[in-house]
Specification:
The chain is 50% helix and 10% strand. It is mainly alpha-helical. The protein folds into two domains: 10-22 and 117-166, HAD superfamily/HAD-like (Rossmann fold); 26-113.
Length: 167
């Protein structure tokens, strides 16, 4: 009988409240920033929607998102933007393909305008895991911030290259 313990070869970590931390109310403030940015971007395309209306729609979208997320599915940030525009205009305006880059930037940039902060122990932990030959996976429900922005943010914070897999 082999009494040796099995070797841990890989570790997975969750992103939010493990590696990235939030200050109280930051998520709500970030949603306000998203709505301000969207209102500004939409006005460039001749679509006038108040920030208050966008906030209301964003809040109304939350139960739908939660239902989808509970099924381990995701809603892309572009689909969220389409939903918001359609709901905020009672269906009278649909987003156009040529608007999407600007609207995407407006929606996603909120993470950089009010960034979470890196768990101060994260770099040391990740370095230790790598130094001990462990593979590292990152698990994250992206929520309202698209994965490409989260990956860029992690790289900017100096920890993006530690991960072998990001889901």
């Amino acid at each position: 009988m082999d009494d040796s313990k099995p070797e841990i070869k890989a570790v997975t970590l969750d992103l939010w409240e493990t590696l990235l931390l939030e200050r109280d109310g930051a998520n709500e403030q970030r949603n306000l920033i998203r709505c301000r940015n969207l209102a500004r971007a939409l006005s460039k395309f001749g679509v006038k929607i108040s920030v208050d209306r966008l906030i209301s729609v964003l809040k109304a979208m939350t139960p739908w998102l939660l239902t989808v997320w509970e099924k381990s599915r995701e809603v892309t940030h572009l689909d969220q933007i389409r939903f918001i525009i359609k709901a905020a205009t009672d269906g009278s305006v649909s987003s156009r393909e040529e608007w999407l880059d600007e609207l995407s930037s407006a929606y996603a940039s909120a993470l950089y305008e009010l960034p979470p902060y890196l768990n101060p122990d994260a770099p040391q932990l990740l370095r230790w895991l790598k130094d001990h030959g462990k593979k590292i996976g990152l698990i994250c429900n992206v929520g309202r911030t698209p994965g490409f922005i989260l990956r860029k943010f992690l790289k900017d914070e100096g920890i993006g290259n530690f991960f072998d897999v990001m889901i």
